Amino acid sequence: MGRADTTTPANGVPSPPRPGLRERKKRRTRDALLRAALRLFAEQGYERTTVDDIAEAADVSQRTFFRYFGGKEEAAFFVSRMAEGHFVEAVRRRPPGEAPLDALRLALCESWDTIGDSIGQLVPLDLHMRFYRVIESTPALLAAHLRRANELEEELARVIAGREGLDVDTDPRPRVVVAVFGAVMRVTERIWSAGDDAGLPALRDLTAAYLDQVEPALSGPWRTDADTPGNGRGTP
Description:
The protein is built from nine helices and no strands. The chain is mainly alpha-helical. Helix 1 (21-44) crosses helix 4, helix 4 runs parallel beside helix 7 (139-164) and helix 7 packs antiparallel against helix 8 (173-194).
């Protein structure tokens, strides 16, 4: 009892080990804290919600909360961080022949299509989407969100540079295209959060419409006949 279980489906490929009982209990506690935190942030505001409020709503002690999270901010952005990591991996998996902006856009669509189930295992998807509106109206959360966005852009720029065989520190294009993509996302988030429709389809449609306006300038191929992977050349 409590040991990880493995199963082998009909195709003969073993499925990932099922977490043991202790690990499942820990995940249930963490998920309960996440749901309580996001619900309280959405209902009464981030600043007015205390760690004690979250712990009480999840029926655990404050000490238990700090076993899982360093503070309110970590709990607030836990699901968002997971979604960002999912997006980065989707960019890594894009076919090598895709233009950089195409790879970013299609990876975003792919991650939106596949992340919903993973988020839903932690918190309701609509609650996750509602929290984005809380970010826009809360200075402390918005500052943390923008700080993380800068870190994410740097990570993505290095992934794009690696895909294109470029040196990110000598060729500005990976950082430029990622910065443009990030700017579109920020504008989209701001306008979407001020609208009446808080659903994911509305955010997707708005993002697509804005990317359509910048894509022609940035979506073409970057390589030239003189370029070779890793030489850091190929400026436009």
